[in-house]
Specification:
alpha/beta, five-stranded parallel sheet, binds flavin-adenine dinucleotide
């Protein structure tokens, strides 16, 4: 008899785990509260426009490829990938920096801004490439059970990089504030301030400048569709519109899950929902982490998001655009140090229809705008409207065009929606930050210490926030389950 396993949620980590577990011979069933799979990576289709609701940067293509290779497949069996050229554009108050699709092009752009800067840039990226190799091949594939996992012949020579910060490293090598912001941007994906992120994480700079920015034709949701198809082909049963209300435990063993008042029994339970929420599905005595524990942690930001349909093609934009025309430090303080709505927010705008005609009706533009904000802050319609006006005015000025009268529709998504749609702790957008004290074995554990057959996966566990780490998290937890309960 195959062992049965219930997976709560259908985000990247749950889908990844489901594939590995089905391949290993388990009878796998996914229970997702929402109507469609994908978790934070769902899709909005409206009036001929296609929006990715969550992630839009396809970085680290090697990790996606490795995932499909593990099942004898390739990404190209499911979706078409384009390397974006340029990768993205950054708007500053008085200048625009364009990040090309090769290091050579990026060096030329750095030289234009700060003569001589291509020399330290090449050195910085070389070191980042070595860190990437160590991180991806030696560190992130560890389940975070003990500090000794981090001790390898290659990591011991880099211990200092865990105690220095990215921010310090960048400032030692570059003087121009725009180049500093450019090099600090990638670590924002890890959810913390660059001044609080170990310099070893410069491997994100290699992911950016070395491996490039890609786009799956049709959007990021194509990856979810691919994983869903793979999971189904491996025998995974997917139940959407199924909210799990309780994990039923008896004598330190999960008996199963309660859905619509009915207990469904399983041999093993795995939750890919936000860790904090997953533990609230247990009786208090079976929870490992207290409210005080979560309260003390540094969470990745929440976001105010707008999905906008424009009835014309826009000028002076690329597929990905960062608006860094205001103070990076002040905005970061408003997120992490003294949580409040930022006065002059940085923001990000994504127009996938610039490179992919399938994302919008002809002669139209699909626009996604994101302002990172502190998790848990006040979220009202009035605040959303106020911030839309702020960023639209800046967008029009910096891209030298009028667009407000060309909006067919706009939808917003913020703290309250993250809580309602995903049971996200304080409405965080992408989990728990990867700071020094919240890295690897210091993150919430994949296996419950109190319930023998209960496991967790996703961006609050190892390795951390982001789509590639979520794919890896699913693989790690599947390996751990297989080790403890092999069929
Ligand atoms: C706006 C935004 C932009 C982002 N941009 C990027 C990017 O560009 N690149 C990148 O790599 N990453 C990005 N990320 C991060 C990335 O999307 C996440 O790290 C990743 O999708 C997390 O996957 P997960 O499996 O951990 O969790 P989730 O996607 O949150 O999945 C958890 C699932 O559990 C379900 N669930 C919760 N409670 C229950 C319950 N009681 N019963 C049943 N189901 C339940 C939820 O509905 C959800 O489907 C972004 C995230 C956001 C929000």
């Amino acid at each position: 008899m195959k062992k049965s396993i219930a997976i709560i949620g259908s985000g990247f980590s749950s889908l990844s785990a489901s594939c590995y577990l089905a391949q290993a011979g388990y009878d796998v069933s996914i229970f997702e509260k929402n109507a469609t799979v994908g978790g934070r990576a769902r899709q909005l289709k409206k009036e001929g426009f296609t929006f990715d609701i969550g992630p839009s940067w396809y970085w680290m293509p090697d990790i996606f490829e490795k995932f499909f290779n593990d099942f004898g497949k390739s990404t190209s069996d499911y979706y078409e990938l384009d390397k974006l050229s340029p990768a993205y554009k950054i708007f500053f108050q008085d200048e625009v920096i364009t990040i090309g699709d090769t290091l050579e092009k990026i060096c030329t752009e750095f030289e234009r801004i700060e003569p001589g800067s291509s020399v330290p840039l090449k050195k910085f990226i070389n070191k980042a490439a070595t860190n990437y190799d160590i991180a991806i091949n030696k560190i992130v594939l560890k389940p975070g059970l003990s500090p000794f996992e981090l001790v390898t012949p290659k990591t011991v020579t880099r211990v200092d990089q865990f105690f220095k910060t990215i921010s310090g490293d960048v400032r030692r090598n570059f003087k121009n504030p725009k180049l500093i912001s450019t090099l600090e941007f990638p670590v924002l994906f890890l959810g913390a301030k660059p001044s609080n992120t170990p310099s070893f994480y410069s491997f994100m700079n290699y992911a950016d400048f070395g491996l490039g920015t890609w786009h799956p034709k049709g959007g990021m949701y194509e990856v979810i569709k691919a994983m869903e198809a793979l999971a189904v082909s491996l025998g995974v049963k997917i139940h959407t519109n199924h909210t799990v209300d309780k994990i039923e435990v008896s004598q330190q063993r999960a008996k199963g899950i309660v859905v619509n008042g009915e207990l469904k029994t399983f041999d093993i339970v795995l939750s890919g929902a936000d860790y904090h929420h997953s533990e609230t599905l247990l009786d208090t005595s079976y929870r490992q982490y207290s409210e005080a524990y979560w309260e003390k942690k540094t969470f990745a930001p929440s976001s105010l998001l707008f999905y906008v349909g424009f009835n014309k093609k826009l000028n002076n934009i690329e597929h990905h655009n960062l608006f860094f025309d205001t103070n990076f430090e002040t905005h970061a303080e408003d997120i992490y140090d003294d949580p409040k709505w930022p006065e002059d927010p940085l923001f990000y705008a994504n127009f996938p229809s610039v490179t992919d005609a399938s994302m919008a009706p002809s002669e139209c533009e699909t626009g996604f705008f994101l302002i990172p904000i502190a998790p848990g802050i006040e979220d009202t319609e009035q605040l959303r409207a106020q911030y839309f006006d702020i960023i639209m005015a800046r967008f029009e000025r910096l891209t030298a065009q009028n667009v407000k009268n060309n909006i067919i529709f706009k939808e917003s998504f913020c703290v309250k929606d993250f809580i309602k749609e995903y049971n996200s702790y304080k409405g965080n957008a992408y989990g728990m930050a990867n700071t020094l004290s919240q890295t690897a074995f210091l993150r919430p554990k994949l296996k419950s210490k109190k319930v023998n057959n209960l496991y967790f996966t996703g961006q609050l566990t190892v390795p951390g926030p982001g789509v590639p780490p979520s794919l890896i998290s699913g693989k790690l937890v599947a390996e751990l389950i297989n080790k403890h309960h092999s069929n």
